[in-house]
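Researcher: I'm preparing a figure for a lab meeting and need a structural model of a single chain. I don't have an experimental structure, so a prediction will have to do for now. The sequence is pasted below. Please return the structure as tokens so I can convert it later.
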Amino acid sequence: MRWARVWALLCVTPFVVAAPPASAQDTTLVCRADARAFCRSESLTKNRETIHVCLERNADQISRDCRTLIRMTARPPAERRPAS
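Model: Understood. Here is the structure written out token by token.
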């Protein structure tokens, strides 16, 4: 009986402990309105890197949820970042 509890604990623990990271899809959905409002020209190009840079540049104006996701997501490498 004890081995069943240990095995069940080992099977469930990774799902409880590890929270899923914010995905690009979540960032896109949360920040879509902010990108349209503050980064109109960048959002028309549909280039995620330029939109990300623009949202970082306007961090004081965008929504709190979008600002949090922008801070949590990885920045593009310096050699791929568009000039501002």
